[in-house]
Amino acid sequence: MNPKAMIWLSVVLSAIAQIFLKRGLINLQSRNFIDPGVLRLAAGIFCEKFIWLWGCCFVVATGLWLSGLQHLDLSYAYPLVSIGYVLVTILSAFFFHEQVNWNRWVAVAVISAGVFLIAAN
């Protein structure tokens, strides 16, 4: 696989992982697993499929990141991580109906412009 594609896929998987984590925590909260009992919380986390999906996505994303980074300059690859902020904002608004105010959208646009400038090289 192309090293640039590995980096981009790593960033996308990391953003998706954040959505899985949030969904898993929402599920735990709705089942009253968030309480003072540490063992009960740990059991709930262990049984939550979305938290497992979060972990799997991060393992794959980390592997892709390491493989891609072997062949690319860090000064190119690392700024691309910021596209994850953009993806998480968009996915959060879509899946969780989070209200994203105008200031955040401006920040997302600025980040996107920066990523475009880096990726265009």
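Above is the first protein from milestone M3; the second protein from the same milestone is given next.
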Amino acid sequence: MESYSITILAILFLIAGSLIWIAGINLAKSTQTIDTRFKLGDALGGLILLGIATSLPEIAITVSAALTNHISVIIGNLIGGIAIQTLVIIIFDFLIKGKRPISYLTGSVILTFEALFVIVMSLITIVASFYPKNYTVLNINPLSAILLISWILGLIAIDKIRLIPRFNIIAHDTSPGRKHHERRAKNEHPVFLGKSNAYVISIFILAALVTLGAGVLLEETGVAIATKLNINAGIFAATVIALVTALPEISTGIESIRIKDNLLAVSDIFGGNSFMPALFIVADILAAKPVLTFMVKSDYLLVIMGILMTSVYAVAYLVRPKKRYFRLGIDSWLVLLIYAVGIFCLLYIP
């Protein structure tokens, strides 16, 4: 890839990003329909399917980077992706109508639990980075396996919490929209109304394959562009590549905001963020080395940014601030400030 000119690489990068956008939207629609028709959402298998399907771009980049030994790209994309996708909530806050911020309108403390889940997963990645490289099991960091197990257990816990009545008390002036079980129970995507199950599954498989292929192209061209521009590949992955892979979440989230499914828009972001650290075990297996033990200063800064940004929203969905300032809640402004300061600091890390 590095033999191509920067212009060709940029065009290929944009093509890959466009494919991820288009395929990601179709993947979300088909996944929603499969989830509804086969009633998968109430089972662990369904929750895992939803988590994997919505994170296929990150999976593709992880696999491609692991096979090409681009360790910094893996860490940057998975850890930096948490900060980028949390930043997407600011877009939702800006687009929402009315005088109240999205943290007030969602009206659900369940989002606080989901945010805490992301924070716990992020903290485990930090601990895993200190694990001795000489004590791996088949070149796998045991704490990478703990991340996968923690994700599965966290899914079960969050799903149980959603069913507890006292956590579902909604104030009269809020607008959370549908809850997870309501979406699962009766709402397949309108695009697939009247279509056969075979057709829906075919679209799902095709969209998944396109997403995986585009993810590989995105990783390869991204590394080549970073090399030509003399930019740290990990930081490029944590910012530019992570933003591109978040495009499907941005699109589906905006659609959720449009139909006033405010709670689902935010919940899907936290769901994707909690899944990304679980991919480190895939990276370990394919790269044949404990990937997280190669974290550097910039990676620690990125994970701290993600934790701080998520913590702000964890508190906001509990406290529920009422006022907006220039179309954003005070929580979104604080998250934006944390991200801006973090990116500024990244520029001065060797």
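Note on the second protein: Strands lie at 324-325, 328-329.
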